[in-house]
From TrEMBL:
Top-level division of the source organism's lineage: Bacteria
Source taxonomy: Bacteria, Bacillati, Actinomycetota, Actinomycetes, Micromonosporales
Organism the protein comes from: Actinoplanes xinjiangensis
Residues of the HTH tetR-type domain: 13-73
DNA-binding positions: 36-55
Name assigned to this protein: TetR family transcriptional regulator
Keywords for the protein's UniProt record, in alphabetical order: DNA-binding, Transcription, Transcription regulation
Amino acid sequence: MPQSPATQHRLDPARETAILDAIRELLAEVGYDRMSIDEVARRARASKATIYRRWSGKPDMVAAALHGLMIDHPPLPDTGSLRGDLIAAMTGFCRVYERKQPIVLSLLAAIRADPSLGRLLHEHVLSTGVTETAAVLDRAVARGELAASADATTLVEVGKALLWHRLLLSGEPLDQPWVIHVVDDVLRPLLGVADR
C-alpha cells in the first residue's frame, strides 16, 4: 500500500521530479526487474537514504512515477458541449497513454509476478482523471445536456479500458477517428445521451 501522508517524507520538488524522471527512464530502458534503487539514485544524483525516506521501496516509487505521468496533462478545456468536452478529454488522455506505453509494457511481467504491485498501480492510476471527468459531467448537467450527474468513475474506467486495449492488444493508433468512435458509440450512450 502507498505510505500515508503522515509517514511520507516530503522532498524538494526539483529533487522529487529528478527521482521520478529517473524511474520512468529506467523503466522504459531496462524494465522493472532490472531497475535498481542504486541506479535511480545515481541517475537522479540523490542518495538512497533520500529515496527511502520518501518511498518505502521500488513498488511505491514506480506507482508514484506512473501516477505523476498520468496527471501530467493540460487542464481539460470547456468546449461548450458534452460531446466536445469528451472528445477533448479522450484526445488528451490518448497523448498521456502514448507517452507511458513503454513504461507500462515494462511492468506487465512484474505485475503478473507480484499481484500487490498491480493493486498498487491500480490504486494510483484509477484515481487519475475522475475529478476532471466529474467536472465535465457537472458542466453538462448545468447546460441541461444530462438530466443528473453521472458516475465519473465508471466513465473513466471504461475509457481507460478501451485505451489500454487499443494500445496493448490491437496496436492500432489512438487517432481522432477512434476517439470520436469511442465518444459517440460508447461513452455518450453510457451516459444515456444518444443524439449527435
